[in-house]
């Protein structure tokens, strides 16, 4: 009986020690987890990592940061002064917060911003200023389940100034896509997992560089013949469209749908987009050319000024040497005269 009791006590003690060790390990893990933002360099850019800290506001950070990861926190509002101190940011990650309100001037100071991730929030409305950011190439809005309520009334200044190349609107409960106007740089367009009730080729005719559209689980409720015009447009413009199931498009029912003609309006929109794209590229080329010329002129001027400075220093030094030589010569003549007078006397 005593032996049995001793064994039970040993087993109980072992279990207790095991639990204690596990609790200690968990505490150690918690203690080792970061409690404040950390800094590191990536691709020669200074980044601030504040992800997963459950913060309700962006703390005071170092100046000059170009990457800010503030994902997985509890940020709810973006005001005009929230990010105004960090105008050098190029990559901003605000995914998985609780953002519902964005002030119209929340991003206006971020003229270098290239990537903006606002995915998995509860955004109620988008300010037009986002689409006017001069450097914004990638915009992630996916996973905002309340965004669809304001998109239909979204007023955008056109043409959009942001050179968007990627736009992600997946899983936002959108039933009708907004009119973006001309998007001459857009390459990737993700509108998957939305209950779309219509899909017209007019929506894509102003995206002349479009290469891929993700339509996964977004057109399942549309009638086959309603898709015919858009599918033909994609095929003619070499746009890859991704679906979870292509079987519906490989049926006799789809083949028997009347083949619509591509209207002149669609082609006109497409050609206008191409014209805008060419104009933008020419402007960039001209700017680069002028910058090169300007850089060359600046280098020439700097070299010319440096040469003048060197010549000036040389002349000053030469003048000083001449003055010293004259002084020395005068002193020599005086000494010689003194010696001669002494000899005569």
Automatic annotation (TrEMBL):
Keywords: Leucine-rich repeat, Membrane, Repeat, Signal, Transmembrane, Transmembrane helix. This is Tsukushin. The chain crosses the membrane at residues 290-311. InterPro entries: Dev_Immune_Receptor, Leu-rich_rpt, Leu-rich_rpt_typical-subtyp, LRR_dom_sf. It comes from the Eukaryota. Residues 1-21 form the signal peptide. It holds the Pfam family LRR_8. SUPFAM superfamilies: L domain-like. It comes from Papilio xuthus (Asian swallowtail butterfly). The gene is LOC106124806.
